[in-house]
Design brief:
Structural class: alpha/beta
Order of helices and strands: HHHEHEHEEHEHHEE
Strand order of the largest sheet: 3-2-1-4-5-7-6
Distance between the termini: 41 Å
Helix content: 25-40%
Number of strands: 7
CATH topology: Rossmann fold
Number of helices: 8
Oligomer: single chain
Length: 216
């Protein structure tokens, strides 16, 4: 069964301190998580000085990839539901001496987007939120003309056997994944509210990146 927001927050509170280490275990199964994350950021088409919003930022694993492009003159607004995950993100920001990251604890379904941002993105997070479609709609309105939005997440592969899908769900259960989430299609929402500019799949269709752009 799909976790509610309170259950999701509590789950990630328990996992926060070991989260970065635990997701490295995916490498044992051939997942190139760092590459997927970098591809999602590159799909945004960022430039130096851009102001970027990350939804479900967790421990801040994506910050480094964004910082390489936007530089110190840019800005990251990082939003997450879970206080313990954000504590780790704050430590990362302090350790790297980044002064252009704003950390926000909030339910992204209720959070008010800043207007005129350059880009919005989410990696392995937005599908966990029931209001994902409304969030993507509001994010698209908040983008400046020509701004972009990208989602990296897991999906149910089209051609996998049922037993293999169930095994994959079981392996990801510690991170709040359930088979019910297969009915949530953020890529359709991106195509609904923006002009789709990129869609690619990885790991035999189990991982995808989808990006869209607001007309200038």
């Amino acid at each position: 069964m799909t976790l509610n927001k309170g259950e999701t927050r509590d789950l990630y509170r328990r996992r926060a301190k070991r989260y970065d280490l635990s997701i490295q275990l995916y490498r044992l199964f051939g997942f190139a998580m760092d590459q997927y994350r970098q591809d999602a950021i590159l799909a945004l088409g960022l430039a130096p000085g851009d102001h970027v919003v990350e939804l479900g930022c967790g421990t801040g694993l994506n910050f480094e990839y964004v910082q390489r492009i936007i530089g110190p003159e840019g800005k990251i607004v990082a939003v997450d539901l879970t206080d313990a995950m954000l504590d780790v993100a704050r430590c990362r920001v302090a350790r790297e001496h980044w002064t252009n990251v704003e950390i926000v604890q909030a339910d992204v379904a209720k959070w008010q987007f800043p207007v005129g941002v350059s880009a919005v993105y989410s990696t392995f997070a937005i599908t966990l939120v029931p209001e994902y479609d409304a969030i993507i709609e509001r994010a698209s309105r908040a983008l400046r003309p020509g701004g972009s939005l990208a989602v990296l997440d897991m999906k149910k592969p089209d051609h996998w056997a049922t037993w293999l899908v169930k095994l994959a769900v079981w392996l990801n259960k510690p991170f709040g994944v359930s088979l019910d989430l297969a009915d949530r299609h953020p890529w359709d929402s991106i195509e609904r509210y923006l002009r789709k500019t990129d869609y690619r799949e990885y790991y035999f269709g189990a991982i995808y990146v989808c990006a869209g752009r607001k007309d200038a």
